[in-house]
Design a protein that fits this description.
Helix content is 19%, strand content 29%. With 261 residues, the chain is α/β, with parallel strands linked by helices. The radius of gyration is 19 Å and the shape is globular.
Length: 261
């Protein structure tokens, strides 16, 4: 049976930058722990939701009830990975004045329904920005990936989509310690796809790998060849700003430093 389309009473939720959002119902297939304070949720959804999911980094809006405020969540699985399904990495949040809490979503069980928007946003515009365009005489061959905490979600989508195939990729992935780092079981798979994974722990006792923050790790390693380097990143504002500043100072074209929002 196709998911039921929910048309809000009175007026639809309007995005500040776009069209009215028509929500549909989707079904939770599984809800598993992914890391401390994070859940990996697999959802079954129809083409009215996932038909628009074509670019890694896109997101969906999800809400508990028809009249409640929606949260924004990047899709973790790559476009078309499993037809009719998508995976989400949800960080537990109690909410704030500007964003709803998601305890209900993190506590959802298989078989329960969600109210979900179609896939939205422009995602990581790699096709537009990593080719020979404008002042860039060289297509991107080196891709630096940056994620912190649940920001790994859209980065995973990019890695597993195949969009980075043939490129020299390095992922700097930051977390407090290994218990807060999702998808460690996928690192070998990502390495096999040509992505060097550099976990960076900020507060890990006994950790013998890189420590501190991803922006510091970038500065320590430097950029090999700025003219054909691009970057994808998702994480806290401070991290993203410092990473972008370091990349631009190293000579990377600012237009090739991409975020998914």
């Amino acid at each position: 049976m196709a998911p039921r389309v929910l048309r809000p009473r009175g007026s639809a939720l309007r995005m500040g930058w776009g069209d009215d959002v028509v929500f549909s119902t989707a079904k939770v297939l599984s809800n598993e722990p992914a890391a401390e304070g994070m859940r990996s949720i697999t959802v079954e959804a129809g083409d009215d939701i996932l038909g628009a999911y074509t670019i890694p980094g896109q997101f969906v809006q999800i809400k508990e009830k028809e009249d409640t405020k929606a949260g924004f969540f990047a899709i973790a699985s790559s476009p078309g990975a499993t037809p009719g399904q998508c995976e989400l990495l949800i960080k537990l949040s109690e909410g704030s004045d500007w964003a709803p809490g998601n305890q209900w979503l993190c506590g959802s069980k298989a078989g329960e329904t969600l109210i979900m928007s179609p896939a939205m946003g422009s995602g990581f515009k790699m096709e537009d920005n990593f080719s020979e365009t404008g002042a860039n005489d060289f297509p991107v061959q080196n891709v630096l990936l940056f994620a912190a905490g649940s920001g790994i979600s859209p980065i995973r989508s990019a890695i597993e989509s195949g969009a980075l195939a043939g490129k020299d990729c390095t992922l700097y992935y930051g977390a407090r310690d290994t218990t807060f780092m999702a998808y460690m079981d996928k690192f070998d798979e990502w390495e096999a796809k040509g992505v060097k994974v550099v976990p960076v722990m900020s507060k890990a006792d006994g950790w013998d790998g890189r420590t501190g923050y991803v922006q510091a790790a970038l500065k320590e390693d430097g950029v090999k060849l700025a003219r054909n380097t691009g970057a994808l990143m998702c994480g806290m504002k401070g991290m993203a700003e410092e990473v972008k500043e370091a990349l631009v100072e190293a000579g990377v074209d600012e237009g090739r430093v991409l975020t998914n929002f």
